[in-house]
Structures are given as C-alpha cells and as structure tokens.
Amino acid sequence: MRADKIEEGSIGAFGEVTIRWTDWIRTTTGLRADFYTADVESDNPANSGDKSDAILSPKFGLVLGPWSGTELYLNAGTGFHSNDARGTVTNIDPVSGDRVLPSPFLVRSEGAEIGIRTQPNSRITSTLSVFALDFDSEIVFVGDAGTTEASRPSRRIGAEYSLDVKLLPWLTLDLDAAYTRARFRVDDPGAPGKRIPGAIEGVVSAGLSFDNLDGWFGSVNVRYFGPRPLVEDNSVRSQSSTPVSARVGYRFDDGLIVRLDAFNLFDETSSQIDYYYASRLPGEGADGVEDIHFHPLEPRSLRLSVTKQW
Asked: What pairs with residue 20 in β-bridges?
C-alpha cells in the first residue's frame, strides 16, 4: 500500500531528588525531558515531511515505613508514548485515497499506583499494588494498511502481585501476576464498544531457578497470557497461551560457561499475537472475509551458548 524511508532520533534527560523527612517518611521527585524528531520520505509526496516534538514528564513518589519489614508506597506522574512516525505526516490514506489528519508524535499519559511491600526476612519479598493509567490516545493496529494509528483516549485499571522466595540457599521461586481492565474512555459510532483490541487482561509468570550448585545453574519458567478482545464489542477474543522455557548450564573455574536454553519446551501450538480484520484470498469477494490473523508462537527450539570470561 505504501513504501517509506524513515530516519528517527530521540534524546532524553532525567533527574530526581530523594528526601528522607523522618525515619519512616521519604519522598522522591523527578522530572524527565524527551525530544523526538523524524524525517519521512514516502512514495506519495503528500505523506512525506519532517516532524519533531518534545515533552516534559514530572514524577512523584512517597514511601511510608518500614514497620516490621513492611512499607506503603504511592507513585504518581506523567509519561508518554510515541506514535508511528509515518502517521505524523500522513495526509492521504494510502488505501482509500481520502484526506486524513496527521496523528500527534508524542501522546501524554497520566498514571498512579499505591502498594504495599513486605520483607519479613531476608528470604522473602512480596509486593501488591493497584494502579490506574490514562492515555490521551491509544494506538490500534490497522490491518489493511499494515500499520498503527492513533485512536480514542483510554484507561487501564489493574492490580499486580510479585513474590520472590529463597527456598534454599541455591533454590529461588519467583512469581508475578497482573490483571488489567482496559477500556476506551469515549464512544465511537464507527466502532461500537469500548474494549481495546489486543489489550491483554491476565498475565502470570512463574519460575524456579537454582545457582551455586557446584558450578551448575538453571531455571524453569512458565508464562501465561490470557485471552484478550480483538474487536471493540468483545464479540471476538483470542486464545490464551502458556509457553514454558528452561535453562541449564555449568560454570568452570577458569571462566568458561556452557549454557543450553530450551524455548517453548512442550511445543505448544498457539499465537504470539492476534488481529481481527478482513482479508481476501483468490476467489473471495472484493469485501473479503473478516477473520483472525495471527503470528504463531515459534516451535520448540534449543540454543547452545559458550562464554569465556577473563
């Protein structure tokens, strides 16, 4: 549909100040500055041009504690995401030929979280937090154009939990789980519904790892990606996936390290990502057929690496 050459650059700076007001109150204030620039050469001169943008993102954090190894914390601030550089100078839709408005280069976000972190002893660390995150514009995938475009403002509300336990001097358990409710904040008559296509809801990652075992080390990890909506009204959803990976290695006294990694250990057949849009095969009508398009999870694979340290 289009051919483009893009040169893009960015530079950023960040500073922060932490003040310990008392033994149980400390604050952190920060400021981040970012500058982005892009030069797009398109096969359509109307979709070519230069674009630059800058943004400031203030941050603030408050920590209360610790009391008996437990502390409460609050973080709030602003951030951003960048849009596809092509969209910032696109004036003509490459599919329909209609005139369109360019998308903003940098999009503001506002977020906050409150949580509790506890470390009853040196072997256990546990954290639970709830968060909210707003974007002034969400990025969505456009199948026909094969790119992304700026969409409606969005909001995510969710919770995260993490656990790190040293079961034995050489054996560690780690667990991370999160659930997020993602919605558009405004209605769109052209796309009824407020679900964000592709926005994942439930995620779990867990693993066991061992180290310092007479030179041996290794781990087993499982990741769960839950189903997610593929269209705004939630009428089509993706499947979940649970890939498992493993690692085993040995460190020699002379600095030589030999490691074997296994990915998708049980050769699960699933998708890394899914989209829902119309596509056309030979013999099908001009309007095509609405269907799920996916990038498959790579099959079981092994990687052997040898490293020498001096």
From this structure: 26
Q: Where are the domains of the chain?
A: 58-308
pLDDT(143) > 80: no
- Asked if 197 and 229 count as a contact pair (C-beta separation under 8 A), the reply is yes
Q: By C-alpha distance, which of 73, 76, 78 is closest to 26?
A: 73
The mean pLDDT of 23-28, rounded to a whole number, is 97
- Per-position b or e across 31-42, b if 16+ CB within 10 A of its CB: ebebebbbbbeb
Q: 264 with 300: CB under 8 angstroms?
A: yes
How big is the CA angle at 298 (ends 293 and 302), to the nearest 5 degrees?
A: 175
pTM: 0.85
Residues forming beta bridges with residue 240, ordered by sequence position: none
Q: Give dist(CA 37, CA 54) in Å, integer.
A: 9
Please give the backbone phi and psi of residue 85, each rounded to the nearest 5 degrees, phi first. Answer: -60, -30
Q: Tokens 């209609």 belong to which residue?
A: 98
Which CATH number describes the domain made up of 58-308?
Answer: 2.40.170.20
- The percentage of residues in the chain with a pLDDT greater than 90, rounded to a whole number, is 85
| DSSP secondary structure letter of residue 229 | B
Cβ 268 vs Cβ 242: under 8 Å: yes
Residue indicated by tokens 């990652």:
205
What residues have CB less than 8 Å from 37, skipping those under 6 apart?
8, 9, 10, 50, 51, 52
CA 306: distance to chain centroid?
30
| Partner residues linked to 34 by β-bridges | 12, 55
The residues with which 81 forms a beta bridge, in sequence order, are: 107
Predicted confidence (pLDDT) per residue in 153-195, tens digit: 999 999 999 999 999 999 999 999 999 999 999 999 888 899 9
pLDDT in tens, 186-206: 999 888 899 999 999 999 999
Residues pairing with 221 in the sheet? 207, 245
Summarised one tens digit per residue, pLDDT across range 47-99 is 999 999 999 999 999 999 999 999 999 999 999 999 989 989 999 988 788 89
